[in-house]
Amino acid sequence: MKQKILMMTVAAMSLSMAVPAFAAGWVKNGNTWYYTDSNGEYVTDAWRSSGNDMFYLGDDGVMVTNALIDTGSGLYYVDSTGKRVKDCWKELQDEYDDETYWYYFTSNGKAKESGYLTIDGVKYHFTDYHMDTGWNDGDDGNTYYFGEGNELYKPGWHYILDGGDNDYEPGWYYTDTKGKILKSQEKKIGNEYYVFNDNGLMCDGWVEFVDDETICKYYRLGNGDRMDGWIYHDGEDSFEASVEHPEGWYFLKSGRPYTADYRTTKISDTLGIAKINNKYYCFDEVGTMQYGIVKGSDGTLYYFGAPEDGAMKTGRVTVEYDDLYDYEGQTMYFNTSGAIGTKGSDFTGVKNNYLYRDGELVESASGDWEVVVVGGKSYVVNEYGKIKTSGTIRDDNDVRWRVQKKSDGTGYELVKID
Question: Repeat Cell wall-binding: residue ranges (predicted)?
Answer without folding.
Answer: 23-42
